[in-house]
Write a structure and sequence with these properties.
A two-stranded parallel ribbon has the order 1-2. It contains seven helices and two strands. Residues about 1-5 and about 150-160 have low confidence and may be disordered. The chain is mainly α. It comes from Oerskovia enterophila. Keywords: Membrane, Transmembrane, Transmembrane helix. This is ABC-2 family transporter protein.
């Protein structure tokens, strides 16, 4: 009778141990993947910001010497391209990480969660950098007598408020990074033809965040075309959350059962 009890108990203990090992490995891989993608984004991001600041300084210097922008509206260069930069990084990092991630004991689920966390961290940190540097650029241009406009918010009267700029940039940075990740993984999973057909659906979160915050050459005309160009900041934030949730769902959808391509050297 004792032997009959020992056998099932031993099996149960081994199952519990294996489950604990899997949980530990998944937590470790989650931390590692999040750190690698976040650190990778900022490693490249430092160079991006350095180049943007230099370009802004050159424009400011040459414009001041030639009076090119005297009395004319000028769009800042700091905020305009950051979301597109992060969109490209989002394409690169998850598909570049998935094979090594799974081989090291991670799971697709932990990679999905790592991408979500990375999008959040990147959104906040790059959004803060964009807001602070964009505000500094605006102040410098104003001191030169120019009329700068910020790529920040649908509310013109609030475009110079640092909090509004930060809020919009957080959503832009996070959504664009995550949509890039979804598109990259979509092509990885579906290959070129089917991935291209899926592209319009994967870009829906971008349309949503642009509609909510209405910046640049696309967001404002799009909002005006559909009659939503007078949204309040709170409603815009809700729209940003919807866009972020849609981007997170899209990435999960294309990643949760993706086949890992063999790594060749």
């Amino acid at each position: 009778m004792t032997e009959n009890l020992v056998g099932p108990a031993a099996l149960t203990d081994r199952a519990v141990q294996r489950a604990e090992v899997r949980r530990t490995a998944e937590k470790r891989s989650l931390r590692t993947a999040t750190w690698n993608m976040t650190a990778g984004s900022w490693t490249v991001g430092v160079w991006y910001w350095a180049i943007v600041v230099v370009v802004a300084a050159v424009i400011g210097y040459l414009g001041g010497q030639t009076n090119t922008f005297e009395g004319e509206p000028i769009e800042g260069v700091v905020n305009g391209s950051v979301k597109f930069f992060l969109f490209v990084l989002g394409i690169i990092f998850p598909i570049g990480s998935i094979a090594v991630h799974v081989a090291a004991g991670g799971t697709r689920r932990s990679l999905i969660r790592a991408a979500w966390l990375t999008a959040g961290v990147v959104g906040v940190t790059f959004g803060l950098a964009a807001a602070l540097l964009g505000y500094a650029e605006w102040a410098v241009f104003r001191s030169l007598g120019w009329l700068p406009t910020l790529e920040s918010s649908q509310l013109d009267v609030d475009a110079r408020v640092l909090g509004t700029v930060f809020l919009s940039q957080v959503f832009f940075c996070a959504v664009y990074w995550l949509v890039g990740a979804a598109i990259g993984m979509g092509y990885y999973r579906l290959r070129f033809l089917r991935g291209t057909f899926a592209l319009p659906l994967l870009l829906v979160p971008v349309a949503l965040v642009e509609l909510a915050f209405q910046s640049g050459y696309f967001g404002k005309p799009f909002a005006q075309a559909v009659g939503l160009d007078d949204l309040e900041v709170l409603i815009a934030a809700v729209g940003g959350l919807v866009a972020l949730a849609a981007a997170a769902f899209a990435f999960r959808l294309v990643t949760r059962s993706v086949a890992i391509a063999p790594v060749t050297t």
